[in-house]
Amino acid sequence: MALKSNIPEGPLADKWTNHKNKINLVNPANKRLIDIIVVGTGLAGGSAAATLAELGYNVKAFCFQDSPRRAHSIAAQGGINAAKNYQGDGDSTYRLFYDTVKGGDYRSREANVYRLAEVSTNIIDQCVAQGVPFARDYGGLLDNRSFGGDLVSRTFYAKGQTGQQLLLGAYSAMNRQIGRGKIKMYNRHEMLDIVIVDGKARGIITRNLISGEIERHSAHAVVLGTGGYGNVFYLSTNAMGSNVTAAWKAHKRGAYFANPCYTQIHPTCIPVSGDHQSKLTLMSESLRNDGRIWVPKKIEDAKAIQNKSLKPTLIKEEDRDYFLERRYPAFGNLVPRDVASRAAKERCDAGFGVNATGEAVFLDFASAIKRYGKEQAYIKGLDENDENLVNTLGKEVVKGKYGNLFQMYEKIVDENPYETPMMIYPAVHYTMGGIWVDYNLQTSVPGLYAIGEANFSDHGANRLGASALMQGLADGYFVLPYTIGNYLSDDIRTGPISTDTKEFDEAEKNVREKIDSFINNKGNKSVDYFHKKLGKIMWNKCGMARNKKDLESAIEEISALRNDFYKNVLVPGSADEFNEELAKAGRVADFLELGELFAKDALVREESAGGHFREEYQTKEGEAKRRKEFQFVSAWEFNGEPKDAILHKEKLIYENIEVKERSYK
Length: 665
Ligand SMILES: Cc1cc2nc3c(=O)[nH]c(=O)nc-3n(C[C@H](O)[C@H](O)[C@H](O)COP(=O)(O)OP(=O)(O)OC[C@H]3O[C@@H](n4cnc5c(N)ncnc54)[C@H](O)[C@@H]3O)c2cc1C
Description:
The chain is an alpha+beta fold. It is built from 17 helices and 19 strands. It has helices at residues 15-22, 28-31, 43-55, 93-103, 110-130, 162-180, 245-252, 299-306, 323-327, 337-349, 366-379, 387-413, 468-488, 502-521, 527-542, 548-568, 580-604, and strands spanning 35-39, 58-62, 80-81, 155-156, 183-186, 189-197, 200-208, 214-218, 221-224, 257-258, 263-269, 292-296, 320-321, 361-364, 422-431, 434-435, 448-450, 632-637, 646-651. The longest helix has 27 residues, at 387-413. The relative contact order is 0.16. It binds flavin-adenine dinucleotide (FAD).
């Protein structure tokens, strides 16, 4: 099937308005006749479900947690971007569009990104109206901070809990509709297949995670807001439950999977502490506004810090290498995440790492504490030269801005980051790849839509900080509710979709057989054993740096691991009860297929772009080197084994932005 991105004609700035003016609408009375399934109630799915129900559609919403409030979105810390230009520092729709396309290393679709920048401002108004408590400045106006890859301050935030506050907003909007009976909420339900009838998505098969019951649900359209697949690496900053199953099942039913190899490795995470770990913790990017990243200049100092015979605070200023400020003077510590991550890896690989394993760099707030302290002393008319006073005042300011993050760090590492610099190291954080969608957010299966992190759409090869929340809410509140109407306008006379059909029979049978095969396998290795092994292959061979040889061996190893998994996995318990191991087995089975496609995609992409760094394609200075021939989206069609997947290319055309060498110097 040919890829049709359905980008509207006309000038970039008018495309979305013209499109909205022209697409078909479903009138309010007819919306009552239409059912929509929304799988996922994080920021993307939650905002979509609330808005679609508010419009009058009958929504059935699903999540695997015990409440929508526990979606992974709740973990988002730093903020959400919007081109409001409240700071008067030169922001605009075009600039946000430009930064996002450049940040994504010129691998995203212009029209989608422009629309995202355009609706970004509506998101803030919507959320403020819902009562989301965004941070405010002294005068009571909404405050902003800056994030990596931007030269303006456009990030709205609620301390280090922006995701939580936004999710409470979306959840309240959903609850209103649940109360009205317009949303039927299915908590603790996991979608395990999509049902396609006459080429259209018409339903899903779910498992009730508490009782084990397999259920059929039908609708006129299905929306997936099921999040990203970073946990293919086992260790990541994602919630433990985040998985690819819904997206992968959709892929197996005909939805193309785009750019699976584009993964974001975030520079500011708490370093790995040992083999026992199952989760990594993000230290929000907002910390790079004030924290300075460094390692010792002298190798002997680095060694002494590694074996704990020297305290970092004793290293003199001139013996510190603020490597981001040195290499990228214009953006300094606020270079995009891929650039910062690779720079940290480069220093650690050269032996300058600062923890026992040599895989950590410092994030230091001493300068910020001093700067803020002096400012406060001046404002209060106190002695700016009193070091103790300045220190106390400075810490108060830092606490006000990042207090909960500092507390979290101290709890995990047992060191006080106000007194000694934090240690950080890159970790898997976000997946830019995902289900391919057209301009209307429709997948290659008619009637099946994908929103939020589950789709591939707006971030190209690297996502800028604070842009995921923006995209998820743009999709859910402002884009999908329009575009899905165009599709559903053909369905106003269809009537309810029956679940008593051969397509539902076949999908349910598939799901039951898979579950039974796990339970009956009676192997001798746990699901986690395989997940950890997969994660190691992914991190070592498909991680921050990739090369042909490693990728080829990753493909072999993942395929062999998958065979071993099906032979030897042990899933205790039964299918008709709460069985977390069973749920995990299904998710890891899908990761084992996705992982191979991921490596294949990385192998085929013979260039470096954003989060995808192929060692063979780099500049003399070690920066990523794009290649014009690869200015396309890879959209993979399922064809049996991952190795047989068929590649379709969506060429990316840039008419409104000049494709330049990406530089943050
Ligand atoms: C630690 C951390 C901090 C972050 N901070 C920021 C930030 O400051 N700013 C920013 O812009 N971005 C941030 N991000 C990224 C951002 O949080 C995510 O990209 C975004 O929240 C994803 O939202 P979503 O709605 O697409 O998916 P999610 O929030 O992951 O929700 C997925 C939903 O799908 C459901 N689901 C999944 N599979 C199934 C299934 N098979 N059946 C039923 N339900 C299913 C889940 O139950 C859940 O409801 C951060 C990410 C992390 C990890």
